[in-house]
């Protein structure tokens, strides 16, 4: 018979596996390994921002795991999910934001350009994986309380807000915590981006394009199912 400790580790393993923790961890290790090799090869710290951005991308994923764990412990107490859910929503744009790190791509000898393309792609992919995994978890929680339609409306609204957040981060240089520390400044800048003719077209175009890409990427991710074994 399995001991209680073994049973506990099995439950933890299954919980983490359900959150796609292991492939995300592997992707993170791979991306960081590419970066460390670049540092030792070139003796410089170019693209060190990728490490910080990846750390920020892990924050919403961690919040989603906490929310899922709390729901598992107390399924009837929906209010305890408000705090991790709010933090998740605030920090969520940090994960897909990593796609825009290609903005910094340029040839930096002695490292060949193809290597830096692969480096940024590894970080960007990990960020996207963190985004869709955490969004899947939060969508499941919303569906538990409000139903399937509400769950997908939640996805669309979250991704639309994420498009706005990524725009404010990339072009207006705001951070996620600015929404907590300087909400008036963020909202004021957002209003200018919407009403100023010199900015509104870029703002609307970027947000629409980025939201559409994220939604299709997420839908593709959710549509995949593990292959069934014979006899199942």
Please tag this protein with its features:
232 residues, mainly alpha, globular
What is the element layout, followed by pairings?
Elements: H1 4-18, H2 21-42, H3 49-73, H4 82-91, H5 113-146, H6 148-170, H7 178-181, H8 183-195, H9 197-223
Helix pairs in contact: 2-5, 3-4, 3-5, 5-6, 6-9, 8-9
Provide an overview of this structure:
This protein is mainly α. The two termini are 26 Å apart. The chain is 75% helix and 0% strand. The model is unreliable at 228-232 (pLDDT under 50). The chain has helices spanning 4-18, 21-42, 49-73, 82-91, 113-146, 148-170, 178-181, 183-195, 197-223. It is globular and about 55 Å long.
